[in-house]
Write a structure and sequence with these properties.
Keywords: Membrane, Transmembrane, Transmembrane helix. This protein has helices at residues 3-9, 15-42, 45-72. The protein is mainly α.
């Protein structure tokens, strides 16, 4: 296995990978906000509950990623 390929496999456990994961997770919040707004306009309680649960999942996911980022510390895979 080449050195570049092994670095690419470790990307998810790097600081850069964590930041990318956090950004994509936070980007999902836009869809949830649109869903919640539409549910409120239509007075759709079930969709509003779904949006609230999805928002809670996003917050939890971001908290987990942040914790992993703090644990990563100085042993970044991509730095060598």
């Amino acid at each position: 296995m080449s050195k570049a390929l092994s670095k690419a496999k470790g990307f998810k456990q790097s600081k850069s990978g964590m930041y990318l994961s956090m950004a994509t997770t936070a980007f999902g919040a836009i869809g949830v906000a649109k869903q919640a707004k539409k549910a409120r306009l239509e007075n759709d309680t079930l969709r509003l509950i779904d949006a609230a649960v999805s928002a809670a999942a996003i917050v939890t996911g971001l908290a987990i990623l942040y914790r992993e980022l703090k644990r990563l510390g100085d042993d970044d895979v991509l730095l060598g």
